[in-house]
């Protein structure tokens, strides 16, 4: 099956991070992509946490989108914070934060950021192989 899309809106609040993880797990289970649940929920958690921690005061909500197309799972997290785009950096051992995009970069086949009006969307691609289908 390809061409499926699901978008859900979450409040920009710390309680939304576990809710976003549960939502991703539910959708991937429904789409029979159980082999991608661990990686996708981890990435959703990192990107949702970034919104909650860095986009405060810019909007009440963020959107999490999942698309399945042409052998690729696409996850997108969009918010209205428009003043600073996320960048991959190398945290030091003493840094207490800054590892989210390092994790995303290590797991995703491809990822990036695109502006939107207002704000931005961070997107990732994960390849769907026969091993991930359940």
From TrEMBL:
Nucleotide-binding is among the record's keywords: yes
Record-level Gene Ontology MF annotations: ATP binding
The entry's keywords: ATP-binding, Kinase, Nucleotide-binding, Serine/threonine-protein kinase, Transferase
Record has Cell membrane as a keyword: no
Occurrences of domain Histidine kinase/HSP90-like ATPase (ranges): 10-124
Coiled-coil ranges (or none): none
Gene3D superfamilies cross-referenced by the UniProt entry: Histidine kinase-like ATPase, C-terminal domain
SUPFAM superfamilies linked: ATPase domain of HSP90 chaperone/DNA topoisomerase II/histidine kinase
PANTHER family in UniProt: ANTI-SIGMA-F FACTOR RSBW (PTHR35526:SF3), ANTI-SIGMA-F FACTOR RSBW-RELATED (PTHR35526)
Name listed for the protein in its UniProt record: ATP-binding protein
